[in-house]
Amino acid sequence: MSKRSAWAEHALRVLREGGYRAGEARxxxxxxxxxxxxxxxxxxxDAGLRKRGRRVGTASVYRALGLLSELGLLRRVSLGEGxxxxxxxxxxxxxxxxxxxxxxxxxxxxEDERLEAAIARLGERLPHSVTSHEVTLHGTCxxxxxxx
Length: 148
Hints:
Arc Repressor Mutant, subunit A, Dna Ligase, domain 1, 3-stranded mixed beta sheet, 6 helices, 6 strands
């Protein structure tokens, strides 16, 4: 079973166990987010659903994303300008950061232990308590660099 399909099954189970109906719209959003692998915004999810012939209203997409985020199944990430993206959160998933292509908008998650250590050291020097952080790097993805 792939990570994406495992996430979809997990999400539907959490919804059921939480007393939430996995109606047609909610199930369609879960399946679409899983199919796209996360790191997508609501518009891309909505467009993916329409392309697959799934009739789900835009408001239903946003409501489903909100609920999935509240339940800890998705992480809503604001990357500055542009819409927030949603990432899959599975059991035991780790903290990570993002690379964003300035041309096509694709987002790639990454982890870096040395970056985390540097942020921890910086937090010790600052007059604030660092409770969370997000790092977003911007550039051009390999596909856009090649022009394909």
